[in-house]
Design goal:
This protein has 236 residues and is an alpha/beta fold. It has a single domain, classed as Rossmann fold (3-Layer(aba) Sandwich), CATH 3.40.50.1360. It contains 7 helices and 10 strands. The strands form 2 sheets. It has a 7-stranded parallel β-sheet, covered by helices on one side. It binds 2-amino-2-deoxy-6-O-phosphono-alpha-D-glucopyranose. The site of 2-amino-2-deoxy-6-O-phosphono-alpha-D-glucopyranose has 14 residues, from helix 5.
């Protein structure tokens, strides 16, 4: 594991963007696994800036997002598809057809999970997966207690996550209760993983995830077993 302590959010974002940009420069057709949440926003902003300067080319990059709420259409400002278009894709030269987010509106959600998992395999697997972390240790939407064995699946979001994500909605009742997420199994199959965490409120969970026992009660703890994990964190 490569543990990098950053000095504040700006520094964290630049360091994380450097890891992503190195990946894309070394392999222009990289398959990037991407995450939402507030943490990666600065990383995306930095990548956009470097793209505009001509330093990175996303024209051959393919992206696969970790998760999506069930029931929100892509034009809903709270959907993860909207978030990705808004914060990243619409500012760079990635081809829209090369950007993939699970379809939370699929009639048959189980079939959508299988389609998404097959898509990851058909694209040759994920070269670099970017991850944030929830206060309860969730990665993607893999909540504590879930098995480590799952591929893409449907989850019922637990109370901690609903409360944490309510800040983006008018009130907690508007937060969708279900989501579709890559599973721990899908995430662990990525060739490289970049975990980012920012703020004093993430210090305890990062410590547990990286140095504590590996247990489904702390989903991110499984990352200790990944052969190519980079953690960039700032607790300022
Ligand atoms: C959501 C996302 C996760 C993300 C987490 C942390 O629940 N599904 O992928 O890591 O929030 O978000 P933040 O970065 O805003 O703390």
């Amino acid at each position: 594991m490569n543990l990098i302590k950053a000095n504040g959010y700006k520094d964290l974002s630049r360091k994380a963007a450097n890891v992503v940009s190195a990946q894309v420069i070394l392999k222009p057709s990289s398959v990037l696994g991407l995450a939402t949440g507030s943490t990666p926003v600065g990383t995306y902003e930095q990548l956009i800036e470097w793209y505009k300067k001509g330093d990175i080319d996303f024209s051959r990059v393919v992206s696969l997002n970790l998760d999506e709420y069930c029931g929100l259409p892509p034009e809903d400002t709270q959907s993860y598809r909207y978030f990705m278009n808004d914060h990243f894709f619409s500012h760079i030269n990635i081809k829209p057809e090369n950007t993939h987010v699970p379809n939370g509106l699929a009639q048959d959600l189980e079939a959508e999970c299988i389609r998404y998992e097959n898509l990851i395999a058909d694209l040759g697997g994920i070269d670099l997966q970017v991850l944030g972390i929830g206060h309860n240790g969730h990665i993607g939407f893999n909540e504590p207690g879930n098995s480590f064995e799952k591929a893409t699946h449907i989850v019922e979001l637990n109370e901690t996550t609903l409360q944490a994500n309510a800040r983006f909605f008018k009130n907690i009742d508007e937060v969708p209760k279900k989501a579709i997420t890559m599973g721990i199994k899908s995430i662990m199959q990525s060739r490289k993983i970049l975990l980012i965490a920012n703020g004093p409120d993430k210090e305890e969970i990062i410590h547990k995830a990286i140095f504590g026992p590996v247990t489904p009660d702390v989903p991110a703890s499984i990352l200790q077993f990944h052969p190519d994990l980079t953690v960039v964190c700032s607790f300022e």
